[in-house]
Amino acid sequence: MRKNSIKNNRINGEVQRVIAQAIRESKDPRISPMTTVMEAQVAPDLKTCKVWVSVMGDEESRDETLKGLKSAAGYIRSVLAHEINLRNTPELFFYMDSSVEYAIDIGRKIDDVIARDNAAREARGEEN
Prior knowledge:
CATH class of the largest domain: Alpha Beta
Number of helices: 4
Strand content: 15-25%
Largest sheet: 3 strands, mixed
Radius of gyration: 20 Å
CATH superfamily of the largest domain: K homology (KH) domain
Low-confidence stretches: none
Shape: elongated
CATH architecture of the largest domain: 2-Layer Sandwich
Structural class: alpha+beta
Distance between the termini: 56 Å
Number of domains: 2
CATH topology of the largest domain: GMP Synthetase, Chain A, domain 3
Helix content: 40-55%
């Protein structure tokens, strides 16, 4: 199976859906309720799966959520085995995805620059 094949993309989508559902159902208090599965990438041999998650909150809640997910990997893997019939149930590796926080930070910076530019125009008496 090629890495970017249609079959692999479908498997990635289903694995992502099941993992997100299993995270919502997990009872580990370390896992933040604001956890989102951004992407799941199953290897072509179905042996491993890299899972990128995003957590809204401070650095401490991100670290605790990552620890909780690594601890709950066995449970999530068993749910995955029951929900999806694959030749192998992949071993899960969790990574923190900070792209959402980065996008929010860039948006704030752009808004600040626009506000400063508008304030400078008003001070000079120019119209927009």
